[in-house]
Task: inverse folding
């Protein structure tokens, strides 16, 4: 369906955007969520109607959604205007506001919550979906990470016109993508394996070889041959080209995000070399890797939300003896159960002082004690930064702790 | 080896380690080392031969598919049964209590045979999944209040061959309507307090260790854990009084 939007959707859009604008002006927030709720209340079918006739790319996964969305948007922006929810408003209300705000002719790149993907695929009929990775996160809310994989698989089977770009090194993702009609596999070199030792297809053991390939010991599920692979700082293409990544963001996770974004752009008709030029323009995204100054102390902010994310973040924290502040919360968006702290190899922080903070800083302090890492618990982010006694430090925190830290340090 | 070094077997952390359950091995080993007793953690992956000579065996929480795979591997090898006959200590959390029992439920509700080491039977729950803080008053070993987090959709019925680990103060526990939490039989202890249950309950960790070491253990400085325990107990009491007010 294309052509003009029905009156109801136009009215709903007007009402939603007015509320969003009001919310922004009174300083209540970005406005995407409240505006989207109003819009959907007035016209429950608005999402489908706003999506009709547009080129839409969805980005989902446990880690890297916001950054990869920015990268794919930047890659497509080399060709013209793009609509995107770069602030991470990734639930239905955020998607609908983003589409209502953006131009109807520009392609839309939307970050989508893992749990919402099936509904978003069914409602938006996206041209392409990027499946980044799946690992344990917020288990108090989801129960089991495999439930996502099952739901993704069913949703993509029911969407024959949607192409999929999927991480070939994540067995859960490979299985979830398996029934899609058109799949572009990306070799990311992912190292996290804790959630994929048993086959999502048959339950038997998955075997990993030293070169990083994997196969089920029982059924046919195995690592597919990638169309595009990450190799160190280079992206290797099926046509034999080797392109050097020039990123402003650090570490393997961002190189993997860049490879996924480049493959997504290629599916939408952008040459990989041009796409990577756009990807390279992305600097800090929603405060991640941002450096703030607090009373003469320079603080770099790192976000890590779950064990897979922390395993990577520990690599990005600058080396000992530089102190580090680590903030942990366990609110609803974080998952209310911080048991996962024991899945994170905090032993790697030995040789420096760690300042533990956040709502659940005491859980972290106990974890650090058993990891034999020198530490202190300090309440409050500004106080924690001061307690480090250094002029230049890293602060790593999980989701709501990161937001609190960003806000409190900006105010200080 | 066994004379001087305590060996702790962590069973299938990739299958039974959904909630940071491997932390229990770290807690036990460190609490021994801080007292000058050597400890070794042996991590056993799916397909590995499980030794029968370890002092302590740990089983954590797992998702349905991996849990059934772990149960199959352990019943085929029979290693854990031999170890228990030799006096080994077993500590199971969440899926651990289910796998140790006579049977547990497949995702479709049909029964899957367990290891039969604990006289308990687990079936699929009919209510909502139990997710939240779990508090119990222990019934064994003169322990202080046990605190943890539970996340399970199953109900475990205790047979006559086991006694409950504790009586539920807050949360669901075994869920069979008798207010029981966990199960104990000889040196096998199991609980629905998943993840690093021993990190929050050092007295329970020391009880298990005292069975292995065979003497009273030196007291450790647990100030930080005490602060964490006090915070969690305050949280549960606050939530409970709020819940009562809102009824």
Result:
């Amino acid at each position: 369906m294309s052509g003009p939007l029905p009156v109801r959707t136009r009215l709903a859009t007007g009402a939603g955007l007015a509320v969003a604008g009001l919310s922004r002006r009174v300083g209540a927030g970005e406005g995407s969520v409240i505006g989207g709720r109003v819009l959907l209340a007035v016209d429950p079918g608005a999402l489908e109607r706003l999506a009709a006739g547009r080129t839409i790319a969805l980005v989902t996964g446990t880690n890297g959604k916001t950054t990869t969305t920015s990268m794919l948007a930047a890659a497509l922006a080399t060709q013209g205007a793009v609509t995107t929810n770069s602030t991470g408003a990734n639930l239905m209300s955020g998607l609908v506001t983003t589409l209502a705000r953006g131009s109807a002719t520009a392609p839309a790149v939307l970050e989508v919550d893992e749990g919402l993907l099936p509904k978003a695929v069914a409602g938006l009929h996206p041209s392409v979906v990027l499946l980044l990775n799946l690992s344990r996160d917020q288990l108090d809310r989801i129960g089991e990470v495999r439930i996502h994989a099952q739901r993704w698989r069913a949703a993509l089977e029911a969407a024959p016109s949607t192409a999929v770009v999927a991480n070939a090194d994540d067995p859960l993702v490979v299985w979830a993508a398996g029934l899609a009609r058109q799949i572009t596999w990306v070799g990311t070199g992912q190292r996290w394996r804790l959630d994929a030792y048993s086959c999502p297809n048959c339950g038997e053991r998955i075997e990993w070889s030293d070169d990083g390939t994997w196969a089920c010991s029982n059924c046919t599920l195995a690592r597919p041959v990638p169309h595009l692979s990450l190799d160190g700082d280079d992206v290797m293409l099926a046509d034999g080209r080797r392109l050097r990544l020039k990123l402003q963001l650090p570490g393997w996770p961002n190189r993997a995000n860049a490879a996924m974004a480049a493959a997504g752009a290629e599916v939408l008709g952008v040459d990989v070399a041009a796409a990577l030029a756009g990807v390279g323009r992305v600097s800090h995204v929603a405060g991640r890797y941002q450096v703030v100054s607090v009373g003469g102390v320079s603080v770099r902010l790192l976000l890590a939300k779950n064990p897979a994310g922390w395993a990577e973040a520990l690599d990005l924290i600058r080396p000992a003896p530089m102190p580090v502040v680590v903030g942990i919360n366990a609110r609803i968006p974080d998952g209310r159960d911080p048991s996962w702290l024991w899945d994170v190899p905090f032993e790697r922080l030995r040789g420096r002082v760690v300042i533990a903070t956040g709502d659940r800083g005491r859980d972290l302090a106990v974890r650090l004690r058993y990891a034999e890492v020198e530490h202190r618990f300090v309440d409050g982010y500004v106080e924690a930064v001061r307690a480090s006694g250094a002029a230049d430090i890293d602060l790593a925190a999980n989701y709501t702790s990161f937001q609190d830290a960003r806000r409190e340090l900006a105010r200080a | 080896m066994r004379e001087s070094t305590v060996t702790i077997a962590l069973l299938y952390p990739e299958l039974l380690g959904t909630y940071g359950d491997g932390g229990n091995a770290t807690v036990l080993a460190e609490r021994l080392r801080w007292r000058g007793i050597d400890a070794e953690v042996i991590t056993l992956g799916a397909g590995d031969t499980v030794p029968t000579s370890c002092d302590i065996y740990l089983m954590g929480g797992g998702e349905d598919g991996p849990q059934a795979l772990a149960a199959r591997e352990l019943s085929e090898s029979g290693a854990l049964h031999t170890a228990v006959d030799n006096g080994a200590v077993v500590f199971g959390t969440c899926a651990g209590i289910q796998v140790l029992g006579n049977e547990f439920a497949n995702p479709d509700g049909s029964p899957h045979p367990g290891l039969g080491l604990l006289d308990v039977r687990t079936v699929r729950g009919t209510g909502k999944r139990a997710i939240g803080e779990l508090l119990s008053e222990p019934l064994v070993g003169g322990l202080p209040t046990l605190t943890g987090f539970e996340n399970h959709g199953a109900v475990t019925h205790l047979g006559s061959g086991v006694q409950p680990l504790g009586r539920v103060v807050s949360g669901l526990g075994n869920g069979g309507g008798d207010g029981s939490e966990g199960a104990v039989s000889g040196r096998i202890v199991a609980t629905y307090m998943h993840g690093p249950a021993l990190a929050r309950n050092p007295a329970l960790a020391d009880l298990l260790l005292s069975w292995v070491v065979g003497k009273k253990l030196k007291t450790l400085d647990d100030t930080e854990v005490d602060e964490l325990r006090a915070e969690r107990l305050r949280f549960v009491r606050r939530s409970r009084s709020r819940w009562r007010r809102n009824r």
Notes: Chain B has a mean pLDDT of 92. Residues 5-219 of chain B form a domain with the Rossmann fold fold (CATH 3.40.50.880).
